[in-house]
Amino acid sequence: MNNKFQLPLQTMNLVAGFMVWVILSSLLTFIIEDIQITTQQAAWVTAVPVILGSLLRVPMGYLTNLFGARIIFIISFVLLLPPVYYVSIATSFVDLLIGGLFLGIGGAVFSVGVTSLPKYYPKERHGFVNGIYGVGNIGTAITAFAAPVIAGQFGWSFTVQLYMVLLGILIIANFFFGDKKEVKVNTPMMQQIKSVYRNEKLWLFSLFYFLTFGSFVAFTVYLPNFLVNNFGLDNVDAGLRTAGFIALTTFLRPVGGWLADRFQSLIILMFVFSGFTLAALLLSFAPSIHLYTVGCFAIAMSGGIGNGVIFKLVPMYFNKQAGIANGIVSAMGGLGGFFPPLILTSLYSVTGHYAIGFMALSQVALACLVIVIWMYYNDKLALSDQVLKTTPLGMMVTEKKGKIITVNPAFTNLTGYSAEEAIGSTPSILSSNKHSKEFYEHMWNSLNEKGFWQGEIWNKRKDGELYLEWLTINSITDDSGEVSQYAGVFSDITDKQ
Q1: Contacts for 317 with CB less than 8 Å, ≥ 6 apart
Q2: Gene3D superfamilies, alphabetically (predicted)?
Q3: Which residues touch 146 (CB under 8 Å, ≥6 apart)?
Q4: What is the rounded distance in angstroms from the CA atom of residue 362 to the CA atom of residue 364?
């Protein structure tokens, strides 16, 4: 019963952590009425919580494996209490920066759940489970919508202090209901990092999450202030629209995980990055509020599904190093939310619009699309190569004129010829001289007319021993339909005669 309770409990922990993480961006329009800061300083105030929220994700994943989610969540929420109170009594830009930096702990707790929860479920459900946990992102929507409403009635300082009550409730809940017997993994952090950092897929997944989750974070902190300043919306309306963006992204995350559990993950990512590319292009043309809403919703849909798919892929490729791999990938995603608001603000101050920034986003998305397509076909080639190397059937591929261009290990085992000896020669090295000219004419007629030939044939091993094989030859054609190669697959059936 305690194990079954971990998914809802840890999801609620993520909701609370993300609610705290975005306090400053959600209440900034109220805060600047009391604390005078420039537009550039405001961008730093909203971006700073992302720094610690990103960098702490790597050690958080490692520590979760070492001590268990219960302990890490409790310590995290206890450590959040002082900065939340400090922000509530802030009187200067420096106060907001210092307090905001440590609010990043709220965003870092993401690594705890994605490291802990897969331990309770079979591998084929990891995508959906991590997707459900990712619904905890809705905490940013709750704050974006509710915090401005409460602040409008009771002031932003009191609103921030209410979050201390929320943290206290979660500390108590984790103390009593957290799993005290969670399976621990005690592998030194540097050893785990060394085991994954040379794997190119880790950094490709980090790039993908940098875009998908980074866009989610960036739009979450950038939209409230942008909608007020650029479109003249009031604070509550801007908060509601931001909450809608967050909610759509969040609830599509488990959909992405569910799709990844059932279909080819890389194909789904192709649609995701295509959506990003088109949406960012639309936003780069500085459209009206209606088209801007369409573009943002397209970003939300692509980001939500993409987030779910990526955290299906990470534990699938890094099963034994899931803690550190999840930490690194999620850290890159968090950093993806740090830079865009600062870059957009800087570009706006220089050019007077955000077009270049959104155009850059579309190009990064396009690059990710190209990489995913490459990964997809590279994986198919790797699978084909694995099949070629491990199958017990002998395989040989020749040019159109008959010269052997590749063989597999089973070919060597069955014939005695090494790959070096066979490649460059012709299949005649195997000839037993037991078949007539008519036999080979029939074989070639079948290949030319049907594209394949199949039957029994006597051949000779390197040591001169004759053996009977069952041989299938297929014609391989190029894009124009012309035969370019022949592929032969055979097995020794001598003992069956």
Answers
A1: 199, 201, 202, 205, 325
A2: MFS general substrate transporter like domains, PAS domain
A3: none
A4: 6
**For residue 68, which of 125, 103, 11, 117 has the smallest C-alpha distance?**
117
- Level-2 CATH architecture, domain 392-496: 2-Layer Sandwich (3.30)
CATH topology of domain 6-387: Growth Hormone; Chain: A; (1.20.1250)
Strands (E), 353-435: 394-399, 404-407
Higher-confidence residue: 248 or 47? Answer: 248
CB of 165 closer than 8 Å to CB of 281? no
Count Cβ atoms below 10 Å from residue 20 Cβ, excluding itself.
30
What is the pTM for the complete model shown?
0.64
> What are the structure tokens assigned to 457, written together?
């044939």
pLDDT in tens, 143-164: 888 898 899 899 999 999 999 9
Q: How many other C-beta atoms lie within 10 A of the C-beta of residue 374?
A: 12
Pick from 451, 456, 439, 453: nearest CA to 491: 456
Q: Judge contact between 394 and 387, C-beta under 8 A.
A: no
SS3 34: coil
Tell me the residue type at 359.
Answer: M
Measure the CA angle with vertex 312, ends 277 and 139; round to 5°: 75
Q: Which residues of 236-270 are buried (b: 16+ CB within 10 A; e: fewer)?
A: eebbbbbbbbbbbbbbbbbbbbbbbbeeebbebbb
Amino acid at 16: A
424: left (phi over 0), alpha (psi -120 to 50) or beta: left
Angle at alpha carbon of residue 199, lines to 55 and 119, rounded to 5°: 65
Nearest alpha carbon to residue 296 among 230, 234, 352: 230
Q: Rounded CA gap, 177 and 180, in Å? A: 9
Q: What is the DSSP string of 257-287?
A: HHHHHHS-HHHHHHHHHHHHHHHHHHHHT--
- Per cent of the chain over pLDDT 90 is 25
Q: pLDDT (tens digit, 9 = 90+) per residue, 298-328?
A: 999 999 999 888 878 877 777 666 667 777 8
